[in-house]
Design a protein that fits this description.
about 150 residues; alpha/beta; Rossmann fold; 2 domains; four-stranded parallel beta sheet; 4 strands
Length: about 150
C-alpha cells in the first residue's frame, strides 16, 4: 500500500487537486493508496471541519495511516513541506520505500544528492584545471615537458 505525501499547509486548496490527480494515477496503475486529502474529506463528512484541528493533530493522524503502508510516494514540492519531510524521515527510518508519485522511481536522500553534486563539481573542476593547464602550456609554447 502507498501513502501519498506532499505539501498542504499554505498551498491553495490544501493542494487537493495535486493529491487527487496523483491518487487517480496511482490507482490506474493498480496501487492501493492512502491520501491525506481523502482523509480530510472523510473527516468533513464526519463533522471535522477542514483546518479546524491543529497541525500536530493532522500529522498524528496521517502518520498513523502512513504506518499501514510499505511505500511513501511524494508529490512535487515535498522538500518544502515540514510535514512531508517528517513523513519521509519516519518512512526512511522504518525502512519504507520512498518514491516519486509521478514516476514511482526511488527518491534519493539528501546525502546521496549532495554526494552526486560534489562528484560532478569535482570532475568539472579537474577537467577545468586540465583545460587551463593545457592552454597555459600551449600559450608558452611548451608541451608540458618544461
Amino acid at each position: 500500500m502507498i501513502y501519498l505525501s506532499g505539501p498542504m499547509s499554505g498551498v491553495p486548496e490544501y493542494n487537493f487537486p495535486a493529491f487527487h490527480a496523483a491518487t487517480r494515477l496511482l490507482r490506474k496503475r493498480g496501487c492501493s493508496v492512502i491520501s491525506p486529502a481523502e482523509l480530510d474529506e472523510v473527516g468533513e463528512l464526519s463533522g471535522i471541519e477542514l483546518g479546524s484541528q491543529s497541525w500536530e493533530w493532522y500529522l498524528s493522524r496521517d502518520l498513523r495511516e502512513m504506518l499501514r503502508c510499505d511505500t511513501i510516494a511524494v508529490l512535487p514540492g515535498w522538500r518544502k513541506s515540514r510535514g512531508a519531510r517528517l513523513e519521509v524521515y519516519v518512512a526512511r527510518r522504518l525502512g519504507m520505500k520512498v518514491v516519486s508519485a509521478g514516476t514511482l522511481k526511488r527518491v534519493r536522500t539528501m546525502r546521496e544528492f549532495l554526494r552526486d553534486c560534489v562528484a560532478i563539481v569535482g570532475v568539472t573542476i579537474l577537467m577545468g584545471l586540465d583545460t587551463v593547464s593545457g592552454a597555459w602550456r600551449r600559450s608558452r609554447g611548451t608541451n608540458g615537458k618544461g
